[in-house]
Design a protein that fits this description.
With about 450 residues, the chain is α/β, with parallel strands linked by helices. It has 21 helices and 8 strands.
């Protein structure tokens, strides 16, 4: 995500290192590089000009205090300017209305609108404890209604049925009426997309908007479109009173033009970003965290939140009790660790948010490699008998051959997995007894770290 920008900004900062102070001469070349980086990222030209002027003005008037070096001071200035450009803080959904709060989703075909309805429904249900109803008013795209129905089942929210023979406005009105009578907190309305902006599409979405009077009208757009994404958002914003934007496919956007331009050009905040195909792949858009990623400093705050969501405190407490009684860490526990890693978004997701070299390392790992490796480990463990999982010492040569055949892997892979397990086992032993209790207290105290970071 935004890899090209991160790489270019890294080169910019190298040019300032070793300077005694920030002057117009020594930041001139840096600003030229920043300008080129932004233009290559497909950021709108007026936005680039304003950004460069902003950075130049702040950098020249910047007092370097304490132990800061000029390159660190420049990073601070650029970081602040990026945050200001993208909206300063996360803009949350406004659901403060007499239920149901209607959320209307708009966008072009192929932007991932229906998938985003599923992702956002899941987030509101799980993180905000809302009772959600979803409805599809897309009567044109084949299987659109069925797709949303399946997504609703997958994320555990209710689905309001509709037919392709109905009119979109009639569907939406019926769904609002049903949501009121059955005390839903939020009604999500998925609308039809088109391959391009046209008058018929805009008239239909306007009529839908007038019929349901949504509290939130969100424009869903593919981040990889760059400047085209911003232009499309602007066109929708002129036709509809948009309240925010959701950028999808951010994991595939190495440039970042849309993320840096949308707020400035449309005046509407980016509220969420979509990452990957999984229903868990939707994050609130935090300008300060994105700025930190762009500058190669990672995203520690999102990393902490992922870990907090992934930790099953009940399971962790159960394991601590087990170890305290002297019972060893077995392959059932090892498998549970892998499942918790998945709950945190997977190894690749966690590494991408780490600062410094670890974050850079994640970009060198081919996509899906870590997930595939974890899948192999699970398959190997699933091929074992309950007795083998509880007592790995039993697994000798003949058992390894049987396990490899049953899991579709090789004996070498089984040996590699057992070695990884032994390494985890040794680490867990270090935290057994009082050490494990200390680790539990650290996990529970992670929320206390928020005060150490501005904007949390």
């Amino acid at each position: 995500m935004l890899d090209n920008l991160t790489s270019r900004f890294g080169n910019v900062l190298k040019n300032i290192r070793g300077q005694a102070k920030l002057t117009e001469d020594n930041i001139k070349e840096a600003l030229r590089e920043v300008r080129l980086a932004l233009l290559e990222a497909d950021v709108a030209l007026p936005v680039v000009k304003e950004f460069i002027n902003n950075v130049k003005e702040k950098a020249l008037g910047h007092e370097i205090t304490g132990s800061l070096t000029p390159d660190q001071a420049f990073i601070g200035v650029v970081n602040d300017a990026l945050i200001e450009l993208m909206g300063k803080e996360n803009s949350t959904l406004n659901l403060a209305v007499s239920p149901p709060a209607v959320v209307l989703m708009a966008g072009l075909q192929g932007a991932g609108k229906t998938t985003t309805v599923g992702k956002l429904s899941r987030l509101l249900k799980n993180d905000h404890k809302k009772k959600i109803l979803v409805v599809s008013a897309d009567v044109y795209r084949p299987a659109a209604i069925e797709q949303l129905k399946l997504l609703a089942e997958q994320v555990g929210v209710d689905f309001f049925p509709s037919e392709t023979s109905q009119q979109p406005v009639d569907i939406a009105k019926a769904a609002v009426d049903y949501a009121k009578k059955h005390f839903y907190d939020v009604l999500m309305v998925d609308t039809a997309g088109r391959l391009a902006i046209d008058e018929e599409m805009m008239n239909e979405i306007k009529a839908l908007h007038a019929a349901v009077n949504p509290i939130e009208t969100l424009f869903v757009v593919d981040a990889m479109l760059g400047q085209d994404a911003v232009n499309t958002a602007q066109a929708f914003n002129e036709a509809l009173p948009l309240t925010g934007v959701i950028l999808t496919k951010m994991d595939g956007d190495s440039r970042g033009g849309a993320a840096l331009s949308v707020r400035q050009v449309t005046g509407k905040p980016i509220k969420f970003i979509g990452i990957g195909e999984k229903v868990t792949g939707l994050e609130p858009f935090h300008p300060d965290r994105i700025a930190s990623r762009i500058l190669g400093m990672g995203d520690v705050l999102s990393l902490i939140e992922d870990v907090q969501k992934g930790i099953d405190e009940e399971a962790a407490a159960k394991m601590a009790k087990k170890l305290h009684k002297g019972k060893g860490f077995d392959l059932n526990d090892f498998k549970e660790q892998i499942q918790q890693m998945r709950n945190m978004g997977g190894l690749e997701n966690l590494m991408s948010k780490m600062p410094g070299e670890l974050g850079q390392l994640s970009k060198q790992i081919p996509e899906g490699t870590a997930e595939k490796a974890m899948g192999h480990v699970e398959a190997i463990i699933n091929s074992m008998t309950p007795k083998e999982r509880a007592n790995p010492a039993l697994i000798k040569a003949s058992r390894k051959r049987r396990i490899a055949a049953g899991s579709g892997t090789s004996v070498q892979e089984v040996n590699k997995m057992l070695k990884q397990f032994e390494q985890s086992q040794q680490m867990i032993k270090m935290f057994s007894g009082k050490g494990m209790a200390k680790l539990m207290r650290m996990a529970k105290g992670m929320k206390g770290m928020k005060g150490m970071f501005p904007g949390m």
